[in-house]
Design goal:
With 475 residues, the protein is α/β, with parallel strands linked by helices. It is built from 20 helices and ten strands. The protein starts with 9 loop residues before the first helix and ends with a helix. Keywords: Signal.
Length: 475
């Protein structure tokens, strides 16, 4: 709405001059400096008395005591909603710390390939993103231990420290990664964009099939699949990017991811003859015979399966919690998402089940050789502030990393799984712990079973023989 113009008179001019004089006197009274920071983006965090602003809480860059340049490499592409939220957090940080410049680079997923050569070569990268379960081990000579920084007050969290502001399950998981990487115990990454692997389903399809609640056990899962098939929809789908998840999730639900790791690395091939593998083969063959798998599954290439899910051609898809965001344009705002943890598989050893979940978070890490660690960590505090996490929820349909932050409606059911999880399973629940064996042998032979090219007995014999052959060749 446009405001009406006021006639310019002599008295109006005099009044304006008097206001300006008074304002000028007020801004200089007592020797206080004014806040020259540029306006902060809407919904972005503001500097508070808990940030490193010497306690004055006015957000004045000159009083923050921070200066220099911070180089930040992000794993997102510039057009993605996550990148836009990160950009707004950076702008808020710069507004509150006007003596600090930020060189923000959106590298996309290539960051995982670019960061190690860059750091090995001495390139000045202060902050970088990635999956710490992979990155900490690969970059152990470069990552900074953050324990002392975690004791700093968090932004917008009512006196909590940075460490206290993050979901405990995520911080515990992140800290647990130091020992396997051969590092001194502590935290070397801060979660900022969590994920969980769950069975995502189309609620409309489930409703039309008369299903009122998602399954908990494998038997319930099979019963639901029968009903969905009878309604005219393919019950389960996946594509070439996520085939591994279904194998690992089943075996891990029964036996736990440590057993799956032993299976994958068994050089004799004998573990593939164990009863639970035969049960797995029988159950997959039954799904194939009943038509539970998508008719397109043999040649399904990413991202075809996720499009089939939101278009109602398939009912459920084992994937990560980024799925609703990835297909938001196709799904539209009225699409009803459901999710549940992979069903409980019977006849296991009691070490799997719903205590175990493949979850984690894309995280921020700092370069141990950074010459501007204080400013870099202050920027990290903005990235994990409550308002920025709320923006991630609103704009990227992402799970928030901070406590006491509402989850997106599309992932409400995922919150239960993450909060009850006691064991963090690796990607694929351990089925990828020897990547060459998984890609070259485990997944292709699994697909032969899914497509009905092998009987369950043939599957067991072939996997046992191929495992022994693979490791006999010195792999």
């Amino acid at each position: 709405m446009k405001m009406k113009l006021v006639r310019h008179t002599k008295w109006a001019s005099l009044l304006l001059i008097m206001v300006l004089i008074i304002a000028g006197c007020s801004s200089n009274s007592g020797g206080n400096t004014t806040n020259n920071a540029s306006p902060k983006p809407e919904n972005s965090p503001v500097a508070t008395e808990n940030s490193t602003n010497n306690g004055d809480g006015d957000g004045d860059g000159a009083s923050s005591g921070l200066s220099g340049n911070v180089v930040f490499w992000s794993m997102w592409s510039e057009s993605e909603p996550q990148a836009k939220v990160i950009q707004s957090a950076v702008e808020a940080f710069k507004a509150a710390n006007t003596n600090v410049t930020v060189d923000l680079k959106f590298t996309g997923r290539d960051l995982s390939k670019l960061i190690k050569p860059a750091l090995d070569g001495g390139e000045k990268v202060d902050i970088f993103e990635g999956d710490p379960q992979v990155s900490i081990g690969i970059l152990k000579d470069h990552v900074l231990k953050l324990d002392s920084f975690l004791e700093q007050p968090a932004l917008e969290m009512d006196g909590k420290t940075v460490g206290e502001s993050i979901l405990p399950s995520l911080m515990n998981w992140t800290t647990s990664l130091s020992a396997p990487a051969g590092l001194e115990a502590g935290a070397y990454a801060i979660p900022q964009q969590p994920f969980a692997v769950l069975m995502f389903y189309n609620k409309e399809v489930y409703d039309k099939a008369g299903i009122t609640a998602p399954p908990t056990t494998w038997e319930e899962f099979m019963d639901i699949n029968d009903k969905i098939k009878a309604s005219g929809v393919d019950p389960v789908t996946f594509d070439d990017a996520y085939r591994d998840l279904f194998i690992g999730a089943y075996l891990s639900s029964a036996m736990g991811n440590e057993w799956v790791d032993q299976l994958v690395n068994d050089k004799t091939g004998e573990m593939w003859k164990e009863p639970i593998v035969q049960q797995f083969a029988n159950d997959i063959a039954t799904m194939q015979q009943k038509g539970h798998f998508s008719k397109k599954i043999a040649g399904s290439k990413y991202p075809a399966a996720q499009q089939d899910l939101v278009l109602g051609q398939s009912a459920a898809y084992l994937n990560g919690s980024w799925l609703p965001n990835e297909v938001s344009e196709t799904a539209g705002p009225d699409f009803e998402w459901g999710s549940y943890q992979f069903p409980l598989v019977s006849n296991g050893n009691g070490k799997g089940g719903h205590d175990e979940l493949n979850f984690g978070a894309q995280s921020v890490m700092l370069n141990a050789k950074s010459d501007n660690q204080e400013a870099a960590f202050e920027l990290v505090k903005y990235l994990i502030s409550k308002s920025v996490q709320e923006q991630m929820v609103a704009e990227a349909q992402a799970i928030p990393a901070t406590i006491d932050t509402a989850w997106p409606a599309t992932l409400a059911e995922a919150q239960v799984a993450i909060e009850r999880a006691k064991i963090n399973a690796p990607w694929g629940y351990g089925i990828n712990n020897n990547e060459d064996f998984s890609k070259g042998t485990i997944i292709p032979i699994f697909m032969e079973l899914v497509e009905g090219k092998l009987t369950p007995e043939q599957y067991v014999e072939k996997m046992s023989g191929q495992a022994k052959k693979f490791y006999s060749a010195g792999n």
